[in-house]
């Protein structure tokens, strides 16, 4: 393991997104200064369904379990989450 | 107090806890949500509730804190169930104990409305013709935005 | 359903009845009022509740009917106690079952607010220094008038 | 009992009023057309605490167990009630 391998964030997916991507989390490398938008771009580069979901403006974002935006800054080991509009209650 | 659980809950128990912690205050408002017997699909047989463990609790604790800044809140309890639910099952409970009737109602309704649009839960409707993620309703978004307008 | 009684009531039982009569609807809002441990006098030891038998029931039935015209109300139950009550005792219960969350809250709060200014009950505070009829609060009148304004 | 004796309304008092008047009900003769105001005048003529309470604009009125006003018409055997602003709930 080199230093670079630590510069990642964990990205979690929930509900419909988790099912469509067929995964509940991936590690995404970041180079600081980084924002959620950078992570979305990296994921979109995987193409097909990834590109589609990353372009969906209804997708909600959380960073370290608090609501966030595409402009929210990220540091290594942050937990990012993408999920559809919530439907509890 | 926020509890996320698969098990059912007992309104009487929750009410008693609110009553005990409010000691001497006059007003308790509660809301209980039940799984409807009809949904987006006609042949719905039940629901599956997914959530984001950890974040869910934080978001709802935050709503209780916000309610406490806006109204007199002596005690508040929220229970939300996850996992498989049958039609007619209890799904969510919000209870608020306050010194004032209006505050109890407002805080209870605020927490419930805001939970609908900000707490990370997702409902999947299970039906004989296949499963189906529920889409967020515009009315829920509107109802939650009302509270921000009222604050301005 | 309106019940005026000296006996205490059981929230769980009332809730279960609302849940049964709502069959398949999604939202139950309840309000319970408790005798506060402080009143107009500092040394209050309890309350005595007088009412106008017959008229009380009619007025509250009328409020439930009015609520049913303004909101979706599948079932509504009101219990009001009379006679001698101790500090902390339950005094009033209002429960509404509706297909919609907002309607359940609104109808429940409307019935409760309107009951405060139109149902013929009178509270006497019992204290070590003597008994004392409670005066109506301006805030109760204002809160009830709000509902008329909203309707206009 | 002559016919005239039937032309009365029952007037009930509650809470503070009942205590101050030291009675929970009285029969008041009316001659039609009559309104609640006529009953209030008859009672006020008794003087002292009766006059005082009948002049109190905060006193609430019911006729046959429904909220009423001083202008509400009355017929024989109606049940009229006077009481202080209500304080239940």
UniProtKB/TrEMBL annotation, chains A, D:
Top-rank taxon: Bacteria
Gene Ontology, cellular component aspect: molybdopterin adenylyltransferase complex
InterPro entries for this protein: Beta-grasp_dom_sf, MOCS2A, Mopterin_synth/thiamin_S_b, ThiS/MoaD-like
TM ranges: none
CDD domains: Ubl_MoaD
Biological processes annotated in GO: Mo-molybdopterin cofactor biosynthetic process
Keywords: Nucleotide-binding
GO molecular function: nucleotide binding
Gene3D superfamilies: 3.10.20.30
Family designation: Belongs to the MoaD family.
The protein's name in its UniProt record: Molybdopterin synthase sulfur carrier subunit
Naturally occurring in which organism (per UniProt): Marinobacter mobilis
From TrEMBL, chains B, C:
InterPro entries associated with the record: MoaE_sf, Mopterin_biosynth_MoaE
Entry GO MF terms: molybdopterin synthase activity
EC numbers for this chain: 2.8.1.12
GO biological process terms held by the UniProt record: Mo-molybdopterin cofactor biosynthetic process
Catalytic activity annotation: 2 [molybdopterin-synthase sulfur-carrier protein]-C-terminal-Gly-aminoethanethioate + cyclic pyranopterin phosphate + H2O = molybdopterin + 2 [molybdopterin-synthase sulfur-carrier protein]-C-terminal Gly-Gly + 2 H(+)
Top EC category: transferase
Superkingdom classification of source: Bacteria
Subunit structure: Heterotetramer of 2 MoaD subunits and 2 MoaE subunits. Also stable as homodimer. The enzyme changes between these two forms during catalysis.
Protein name (record): Molybdopterin synthase catalytic subunit
Organism of origin: Marinobacter mobilis
